[in-house]
Amino acid sequence: xxxxxxxxxxxxxxxxxxxxxxxxxxxxxxxxxxxxxxxxxxxxxxxxxxxxxxxxxxxxxxxxxxxxxxxxxxxxxxxxxxxxxxxxxxxxxxxxxxxxxxxxxxxxxxxxxxx
Length: 115
What we know:
Strand order of the largest sheet: 3-2-1-4-5
Distance between the termini: 17 Å
Largest sheet: 5 strands, mixed
Structural class: alpha/beta
Helix content: 25-40%
Shape: globular
Number of helices: 3
C-alpha cells in the first residue's frame, strides 16, 4: 500500500507490505512548484520499481473538499495528490482509519520522520 502525506511544506511517501505491518520504503522532500509536476518529476521515478507491487494507495484527509477554506494548506494539496493516484485503487480514511495508522508509522508529525 502506498501512503502519501502532502503537507503545506513537505511531501512524504511510504510503501507498506500487505497488512501494513512492514514498511518497505519511504522518502520525503520539500514541496516546491506545482504539486502535480513534483509528483510526476520526483515521485513517479522513485516509485517506478514498486509499481507492480502497489495494489492500493491512500492519503489522510483532514476535511471534506467543501471545507477546503478551513484547511487550505493541507486539504487542497491532499485532494490533488489523491486525484493523481486515480490510476490505482484509492483509499481515503479518517484519522482512526488504517491509512492514518500507517501514516503515523511513517511520519512522526502524525504520530517518525519519513525519509
